Input
Amino acid sequence: MPVTDVTTDPENLTMTVVAEFDAPVERVWSAYSDPRQLERFWGPPGWPATFTSWDHTVGGRAYYSLTGPRGERSSASWEFLSIDAPHSFEVLDSFVDDDGKPLDGFAPMRMKLSFEPTATGTRMIGESHFVSLEALEQVVAMGVVEGTKMAMAQLDAVLHDLREYAQGKGTRVELLDDTHVRITRLVEGPRELVWRAHTDPDLIRRWMLGPDGWEMTECEVGLAAGDRYRTSWAPTGDTPGEPFGFEGEMLLVDAPRRAVQLERMQGTDGPDVLNDINFYEEDGATLITVLMEFPDEQTRDEVLATGMAEGMEQSYSRLEGSVLTV
Output
């Protein structure tokens, strides 16, 4: 994980983040000075950032929002106080409302990000200064420390060419904590088509089948928040196994970038698993990222033990071979 240290200093009212990256300073700087790249890692998993305004000049401002899996929003602004490309920049970071006005009860903090070369790449040092101990404790209580670690763990995928980062590595499963799992798979095909393959029942039936010997017997999709969906599978011929299926509710749909759903096994009372699916395209290839949120560690381990990842890999291979090539 890129973050090597996070330190809070109540006496000096600071929080310091240190991270190491295997990319040159100029490449890391470009990721922090381009809003489209920032959007890929500034928010923690499940809370991606959207920058709606970007004036990267001294005295200029940037506005962004983090959107949670259930549509929750948290917005902030940066006022650029200094810029020394590609070595550092400093901002006044403030929580704001939908109109860009500072929120009552949240004091702004001064944040400086510095980038220095190392033998293997770049060291980033982020130092945030708070106006009071209460302001520092408020941010820590909001989970910013853990959120920062998880957010910056996404930066490796940004700093490298997407195919270099993910091509040929199949379906990868990362345990983020006791209840969160991140699954990634690069597929060769444009995002619009990959999105359609996930939302068109006729296409879904062609690839989302798991291991050979299974067929999809039911496919009802949800295309908007609040829609219900339902999918079922059954073995064919002499394939062993019992029919099963999932059902649930769409919580958020942002075509063709993101879809969030609550899912449970058919015929049960749960537990519900939250699936947050994101699609990012670069040079004709699309990285599919699925963030799964489980109610507890036991449920997480039980689901992973079913061979879910292996079944997903077989489905994604089928997607590339039978859908994205036509």
Remarks:
- The chain has two domains: 3-155, 163-322.
- Residues 308-322 form the longest helix (15 residues).
